[in-house]
Amino acid sequence: MSTHPDLVVSARGLSVVLGGRPILRRVDLDVRRGEFVALMGANGSGKSTLVRALTGLRPVAAGEVRLFDTPLDRFHERQRLGFVPQRPGAGGGVPASVWEVVSSGRLTRRRWLRPFGSADRTAIRAALDVVGLADRVGDSVSTLSGGQQQRVLIARALAGEPELLFLDEPTAGVDLPNQVALADALGILKSRGATIVLVAHELGPLAPLIDRAVVMRDGRVAYDGPALDDHAVHGPLFGDSHTHHHHATDTGAPHAPRVAAPLDTAEEGS
Amino acid sequence: MFSVFSYSFMQYALVAALFTGLAAPTVGTYLVQKRLSLMGDGIGHVAVTGVALGLLTGASPTWTAVAVAILGSVAIELIRERGSANGDVALALLFYGGIAGGVMITGIAGQSAQTLNTYLFGGLLSMQPSDVVITAILATVVLLLCIGLGPQLFAVAQDAEFARVAGLNVRAYNLLVAVMAAVTVTVAMRTVGLLLVSALMVVPVAAAQQVTRSFRTTLAAAMGIGVFAALGGLIASAYLSKAATIAPGPTIVLLALACFVLAWPVGSMLRRRERMRQPFEALPPLGHEETGEHPHEHGEDCGHLAIPHGDHVDYVHDGHRHAPHGEHYDEH
């Protein structure tokens, strides 16, 4: 295991098992400071699971994950990390304003029972400016379009001023003007030296920003090198013969029968 | 007028109702945000067994109900966390076990259904000074936690995965909300009753969010409605009980529901207006199409809605979108 201060993300022999089924098998991945990496591949190839394992949301069955040269289970500098999950359906059952959602991204830098300081407010405003939603702070998130909601989630991650940003399919189901707005926001971040790891099925307007593409296939890394165009990623080499996007639905484990007793655990796979 | 307030049990009940009306919607806001509106109801059912155990053993039914409700709420939260497809069946088993066990144990204890009724639907006469003190202390603890840890609880309820990556102990916060819900259920037991307590947690939130756009204002408005319903319902039931036997629980809940019924049309109108005023997609029109003869000039007070469309406004006129273009209007 080589340690290197410039390696922001490092996975060695990473395996993830969900519901008894191996989803990721011996994945090696290094991301250097300032890199913009696209994780690509077909549905079920394990690209989302990889990001979830790297952020600690999925248990690691074997291998090691290091963030900022620290093993994941001992990594506590959470303010250095930003995460943009796939857009949740309708959000919570109670209205939440854009400002409230974005300010929850400040929690990594905030102590218990402390009110907001001016540094917090400045960071939240700056994050809203980057995604171009500064004029919507008082609006309820549920009244925004899908693409705007995705930009709110990005602003929430940016509010914590992270050095490393993980994004899970930020462009899925987002219309073109919003994809362009999103690409602009990520371009600003990249120019500031942030390290970005992004899961995407198709790159669209993000393509010019990508330094490196990692293509997953059936739980393993099939390609790791210079950016590819969308067509090459979905070529026969990577096991996806069609190019349109089936958006993954949360129906549970894709290859396992769904019969459960009341106390069985649900296992997610993607 | 003064006759009702001069009774000491009524004064105790009013203090208890004030705290209950504040605490129940506060926890309820987090439950509704997590889409667990019925959790309070489930805990209420389980707490019936707790009350019955108190009646059987001679211990304070309040404390046995707190203990059993906390156990039940932790069980419900753990079942929910497992995310099983059949989790709702497991919850149903727990609810029915709770209420059946409670009624049975009450019978074994030799207590009448009337005794149990004061816990199920609230009862004024059962209020003791010690009950009021317990109610006030527990409700204050719940309020302080709900508001002090507001940012953390909000983040966890809004997006648990994000909260986990941000380093928050999601399970601990979820269990905290469940335990606070259990405590609130038992706090509200004497005022609203176990079978209706969930209504005081959820209905004020449902009414408040008709007209609010943020979490914080929803929370504050729900607390206001909760206090109004709890105090108003209690006073109404005291006056009505001269004519008929009316427990405070139903009047409190019906008053809260009346707030919802009043807020709903306002909210529905606000939402409709907001939809109508949404800007149009910033796409250029497909071609240059002029409107025919136009009877008037669109402007500030022509009565037609002006909606932003890219760099200009379109006027909505009989289902058409008219954009000013030189001396005439274009169809957009």
TrEMBL record, chain A:
Top-rank taxon, per record: Bacteria
Location of the ABC transporter domain: 9-243
UniProt keyword Zinc present: no
Annotated region (Disordered), positions in chain: 234-270
Keywords attached to this entry: ATP-binding, Nucleotide-binding, Transport
UniProt keyword annotation of Transport present: yes
Pfam families the UniProt entry points to: ABC_tran
Name this protein carries in UniProt: ABC transporter
TrEMBL record, chain B:
Keyword Transport applies: yes
Subcellular location: Cell membrane; Membrane
Record CDD domains: TM_ABC_iron-siderophores_like (cd06550)
Stretches that traverse the bilayer: 12-31, 62-79, 91-112, 132-156, 168-188, 219-240, 246-267
Keyword Signal belongs to the record: no
Key words, A-Z: Membrane, Transmembrane, Transmembrane helix, Transport
Membrane topology according to the record: Multi-pass membrane protein
Region (Disordered) residue spans: 281-302
UniProt biased composition (Basic and acidic residues): 287-302
Top-level taxon of the source organism: Bacteria
Family: Belongs to the ABC-3 integral membrane protein family.
Protein's name in the database: ABC transporter
Organism: Nocardioides phosphati
